Amino acid sequence: MPTLDRILGLLEAAIEDYHVRDRWDSPCPPAFAAGSLEQAWYAKAWIDTVQWHLEDEVRRTDLAAEDLLAIKRRIDALNQERTDAVEDLDRRMAALLQPEASGNGVLRTESLAWALDRLCILQLKRYHLRAEVSRSDADGEHVAACSARLAAADAQHADLMSACSTLWAELASGAVRYTPYRQFKLYNDPATNPALYGGQG
Fold first, then answer.
1. Quick one: CA torsion of 58, 63, 67, 72, rounded to 10 degrees?
2. Is the full-model pTM beyond 0.70?
């Protein structure tokens, strides 16, 4: 089973590897064994990184409406992929970390995988804030503002790592427990979205 530091390394590796290609249509590479937790965490970070860049693209003002709609549809699909990935990781991490006796542990509202999802997004923010701080075409005011944001993000990273480490240890000891949380994105399912099954317009 990977450690917290190992998972962080996998998230950061996917972000770095994506930016070597720097193309949001690049498929996630098979960096680790198929079906392994390592590949699952790496692929989850890849999804987040592609979605990050599509969120940039969809805010462009020089694209035709049909191009923007296609990007928005892709973002929606990736958001569902992200949710599915985290829910799968939640089940797998719970099976590994929560001992049989954990049914008596204090119930937590946030699961480990969703906490680590937040950690992944934070790594993307830190990566891009570092890029903004080092921009050669940016003025001093921009660099100073982004440096302050980066310092705050670094502090959040330290806090979140500490909190995840504590949650991890408490889960393993049986002191706390969680039920893998499912989001049920009804709007993505034609069977549960009335705008789709009830007729459009």
1. 10
2. yes
